[in-house]
Amino acid sequence: MTTFLTLPFPRMFMYGEQNASLSYLPRPASAGVQLAEIPQCGHFPLYANPRLMWARIAAFHAQVPETPRT
Fold first, then answer.
1. Which of 23, 25, 45, 64 has a CA-to-CA distance to 16 between 20 and 30 Å?
2. Residue 69 within a domain
3. How many CB atoms lie within 10 A of CB 43?
């Protein structure tokens, strides 16, 4: 988690609503990480609610400014 929180670019942490009580969720939120709770699923959003999972990823990607490549 420490490495993830110090990455130098926008980050999103995705989790299923059944895991909304995870004790460590405030830590990434306080580090500026966007939390993405996916409804109607637990540990595997890809299997339980793939349509909404991919929509959240696309929305996150759309709001992140493009970085010039070197």
1. 64
2. no
3. 11
